Structure formats: C-alpha cells, structure tokens
Amino acid sequence: MRELEAAEEKERRQAERARARESWKIQPQRSHEAALLHRGDCSLYKSAFGFISHEDAVIALDEVALSSSSDVACR
Hints:
Layout (H helix, E strand, L loop, with lengths): L1 H21 L1 E4 L7 E5 L11 E2 L1 H10 L2 E3 L7
Parallel strand pairs: 2-4
Antiparallel strand pairs: 1-2, 1-3
C-alpha cells in the first residue's frame, strides 16, 4: 500500500513540474521595480500559485508594464 501511495505522490509531483515548465507566473510590482514575468519553474520566484498560460503571459506583456526575466535568468 505504501508503495502505491509513494508512486502516486511521485506521479503528482512530476505532473506539477511539467505544468510549471509550461506555465508562467507574475511577480507583483514593488514600489521601486516593475512587475516581473517568470517561467513557471523559475527558482528565483518560488510562489507556488499564480500560474498563467503562455497566451495570458503574452497578453500581460502587451497590456501591463511587465519586465520579462527570461533574458536574465528564466531559461
């Protein structure tokens, strides 16, 4: 039984990581910095919520003053 639960947990974590790799997240704006757009699996911004799709990230870049950190660290 424990092996089955461990296998299910492993599958859940793998699915989470796969979703994060394909997603983006927005780091909120601070008073002295612009909001930042991070890849979902970026280790610089560790928020576990707020994932958005690629399409939503493109819209956010067009409509809001966001700075993409992909040039610097999110590869």
